[in-house]
Amino acid sequence: MSNVFGLIVSGRLVQTDFTLVSETSLVTTILDVDSINHAVVFLTGSTPLPAGSVAIVYWSWPDPNAPPNWQPLGHISNAKPSAIFKIQNLKKLHELSTENKFINAFGQQQICHNAQIGISIEPEVNAQMLEPVLEQQTNNYVTFAQKMLENLVNFVASFSVTQDQMTPTPGVSYIPLNTLHTWYQNFERRLQNNPNFWKNL
What we know:
201 residues; 27% helix; 3-stranded antiparallel beta sheet
């Protein structure tokens, strides 16, 4: 089964060296992940997936102090034999949530210093159930960003004074509070329109 899948990252040769970790799970390691923006996972065509199944693709960022933290990216199937995943600004899910339902998807492994792609052959219905999970991850990012922005605005506003109350202090710059509010409203609007807009800043 190890030659069923292929991986392409920009500027590198195709990888097909997936290691079987169980009857339905495979893993490959990617070195020097700092230079990677996208990863393409595909079926090589040597053997189709079993009928009624899909290959769910997971990603694990390197973390020298913890075992792999698997994050679902999406899936490929016989009907959809390839997919491109943007991983440039993918954040570790445990930074936003202490609960990771997929941490044991590939068993307890040793601490990993390189990124890994994991593939799990699962029933087709699992891919449909994965969509809400991926949507929830996006919602978590949006909620985190909104709470952080609100905290910043509230913190700064707690120090606000009127122009009459200001004491001239050489070397100190001041920003009008309404400038911060305008920035906050613009950022929040852009976040609502496209939760991933910040990835291109």
